[in-house]
Amino acid sequence: MTELSGNYITRVFEGPYRRVKDFDHDMHVAAHAAGKCAKTYDGNYIIGIAQV
């Protein structure tokens, strides 16, 4: 287990790995915004974590 210190936001993305570029962009937008101020279990879940 790893312990992270600091302030973070997380997002969970579902979709094929070919969309990782889109997920990365969405995570950058969410991290930028945060700095300024599903029952289905079958799929590819990707978790983005950004330090803010």
Helix content: 25-40%
C-alpha Rg (nearest Å):
12 Å
Count of DSSP-assigned helices: 1
Mean pLDDT: 78
Work out the count of structural domains.
1
Count of β-strands:
2
Class by alpha and beta content = alpha+beta
Characteristic terms for this protein:
about 50 residues; alpha+beta; two-stranded antiparallel ribbon; about 25% strand
Task: Tell me what the structure shows.
The chain is α+β, with helices and mostly antiparallel strands. The chain has one domain. Helices cover 31% and strands 27% of the residues. The protein has one helix at residues 20-35, and strands spanning 8-14, 45-51. A two-stranded antiparallel ribbon has the order 1-2. It is flat, with a radius of gyration of 12 Å. The two termini are 21 Å apart.
Topology, please?
Layout: E1 8-14, H1 20-35, E2 45-51
Antiparallel strand pairs: 1-2
Provide a brief overview of the structure.
By secondary structure, this protein is an alpha+beta fold. The protein has one helix at residues 20-35, and strands spanning 8-14, 45-51.
